[in-house]
Design a protein that fits this description.
Elements (H helix, E strand, L loop, with lengths): L21 H14 L3 H15 L5 E5 L5 H9 L6 E6 L2 H12 L7 E5 L11 E7 L7 H14 E14 L3 H17 L4 H11 L6 E2 H11 L3 E8 L2 E7 L1
Parallel strand pairs: 1-2, 1-4, 2-3, 4-5, 5-6
Antiparallel strand pairs: 5-8, 7-8
Helix pairs in contact: 1-4, 2-3
The protein binds ligand GEK.
The site of ligand GEK has 20 residues, from α3 and β2.
């Protein structure tokens, strides 16, 4: 059972860079649903998108699966025969927590969870869907192009990448507006100003966001034939890139 997130609630002398350790894994479902506007809605609809794009006899990856919420939503919705979902994360604590959640459910579509670095993983060429739900933003910016290229190479014709990210707005005023709305959202969900500011500092060096234009042009440059933004709320968005 996920605990309430209070990791940044007391004043810290030194704020270390955010890492997906045991403390984070144990509160993660609460942390992510109180931090990302529309997260439950996105998860539910990721399942629907997966149902639409899953191809029979194919592999579906959830990269940076964390506690497996996206994996489980896809497993619940996919009806095509002989599909296999593979969730991958390089945090041991997340993989452990994820496996425990996965064990509680049984869906027609089998699920395997692996502890690995998604930038080094040998993806199978019969891939119909890759989900990256708020994971690309944690890769070093210089590794993002190669990561997306290897996803594109693994995808079958008609295959899709579902990519959700926190984004930067192009103007300073617009960016400020979205950041303030996001802070209000977190505050309305019970986070104090201290928690919001300490977490922001912890994430400063490890989560570097791109603009929507950067995402779109990088994906079309790689060869995706269409990029469709299907969700957006404040500075969070999700898109489907179709091969
Ligand atoms: C969800 N998708 O709930 N290799 C593997 N995993 C990685 C790597 C890497 N190189 N870098 C980061 N991660 C989830 C939420 S959280 C997003 C994803 C967030 C993993 C990291 O360990 C963490 O579990 C995940 O990516 C990002 O829908 O916390 O905002």
């Amino acid at each position: 059972m996920s605990k309430i997130d209070s990791l940044f609630s007391t004043q810290l002398d030194k704020i270390a860079d955010f890492s997906f350790d045991e403390n984070v894994a144990s509160v993660f479902p609460d942390m992510i649903s109180r931090s990302i506007p529309g997260y439950p809605l996105m998860i539910e609809n990721i399942g629907r998108i997966a149902r639409q794009y899953a191809q029979a006899n194919s592999v579906i990856y959830d990269l940076g699966c964390a506690t497996g919420t996206g994996t489980l939503s896809m497993a619940k919705h996919i009806e095509q025969s002989n599909c296999q979902i593979v969730g991958i994360d390089n945090s041991e604590a997340m993989v452990h927590q994820c496996q425990q959640y996965i064990n509680q459910y049984h869906h027609q579509c089998p699920v395997k969870i692996e502890h690995a670095d998604i930038t080094q993983y040998p993806y199978q060429s019969n891939t119909s869907i890759v989900l990256m739900n708020f994971t690309l933003q944690f890769l070093a910016p210089e590794d993002r192009q190669a990561m997306l290229q290897s996803i594109y190479d693994a995808l079958l014709p008609g295959g899709v990448l579902i990519l959700s990210e926190k984004i930067q707005h192009t103007s300073v005023i617009g960016d400020e507006l979205l950041i303030n709305l996001h802070h209000q959202f977190k505050s309305d969900n019970g986070y104090s100003d201290l928690e919001i500011s300490q977490k922001r500092t912890a994430l400063e060096n490890v989560m570097l966001t791109d603009t929507y234009t950067t995402h779109e042009s990088r994906l079309t440059g790689i060869g995706f034939s269409d990029v469709v933004q299907w969700f957006s709320c404040f500075n969070f968005m999700s898109l489907v890139a179709i091969k």
